[in-house]
Amino acid sequence: MLTWPIAYLTQDGEPPAPLSTMPASGVTAVETMAVSFLSRWVGLSLGTEQVFLRPSARRERPDMRWSVLWGYGAVCGLCGAVCRCENVYSLQIPGPVASTVTVTIDGTELPQTAFRIDNRNLLVRQDGDHWPKYENVRTVDGDQGSWSISYEIGTPVPVGGQIAAGVLATELAKMLVGDASCQLPKRLQALTRQGVTLETVYDNFATLKQGLTGIWAIDSWVTSMTQSISVARPKVYSPDVPWARRTTTDGSTNPPIVIDGGRF
Q1: How far is CA 53 from CA 74, 101, 141, in A?
Q2: Helix %, strand %, coil % for the chain, to 5?
Q3: How far apart are CA 24 and CA 134, in angstroms?
Q4: What DSSP string runs through 20-55?
């Protein structure tokens, strides 16, 4: 499951009541439910997960001295799956890269200045050396002859989404324990006449399908995200235009940076 951080606006940052009185398993269940709702409301477009790669290669044909087929989720960033490069400097990895990349070769972690990320999925060597053509996948990561790439993939959840998750988790917990201060909409309407109570369903979940809970902190964020997705500017691509690269990390600190007003 994708990682979706949750922020609680309490003094110590801990979950408020009634979450604070629940067992850890109950808190996890409620938070998972809140994240599941929010993730679907914004089109499953947010969240990150950890990726660990052990790149390897094999000869494609004996007569192609440097022809290799990269495995474990990585291919040559210039040639693709079948590589004819004598030395590979650019490696295409699953993206989009969302965090600091850690590269370990023969048990030694490369400094962040030794490489950079282009287009959020190209690992480019920039220290004058090249990426290993082969590795011994039978070795343990960190041993001589091994090399690995570790990072997070996906789109980080904005602060607004983290706060919305905290608010929704709190209200879901209130609903489960019958707390009268719960702000989530009620689905039943009770009418009592001559000692007879009649309950009718008046909410068909139409607004909930749109991510509208009636709670401003949640609805405003979900609406801002879904509207921005629906009104995204069109893009035109032409095969006649050379493919351009954008450096999406600065090579020293390696976190995502802002380019043309967007987070990369």
Answers
A1: 8, 11, 10
A2: 25, 25, 55
A3: 45
A4: GGS-HHHHHHHHHHHHHHHHHHTTS--EEEEEEE--
> Over the stretch 42-80, which tens digit does the pLDDT of each residue have?
988 899 999 999 887 665 555 444 445 566 678 888 877
Give yes or no for a contact between 97 and 151, defined as CB atoms under 8 angstroms apart.
Answer: yes
Distance between CA 155 and CA 97 in Å, rounded?
Answer: 8
Give the domain ranges of the chain.
19-46+158-230, 48-153+246-264
Q: Residue 164 class from Cβ within 10 Å (0-12 exposed, 13-18 middle, 19+ buried)?
A: buried
Cβ neighbors of 43 (< 8 A, separation 6 or more) are 226, 229
Residue 257 CA: distances (Å) to CA of 48, 97, 120: 16, 11, 10
- The CA distance from 159 to 65, in Å, is 50
Question: 3-class SS at 243?
Answer: coil
Residues 127-157: pLDDT tens digits?
999 998 777 878 899 899 889 999 999 999 9
Amino acid identity of residue 94, one-letter, is: P
Cα separation of 94 and 155, whole Å? 13
Query: Can you tell me the distance from the alpha carbon of 172 to that of 88, in angstroms, rounded to the nearest whole number?
Result: 52
C-beta separation of 107 from 146 below 8 A: yes
CB 116 within 8 A of CB 126: yes
User: pTM, whole model, 2 decimals?
Assistant: 0.70
Whether residue 18 has a cis bond before it, omega within 30° of 0: yes
Q: Which long-range contacts (CB under 8 A, 24 or more apart) does 226-234 make?
A: 226/41, 226/42, 226/43, 229/42, 229/43, 229/45
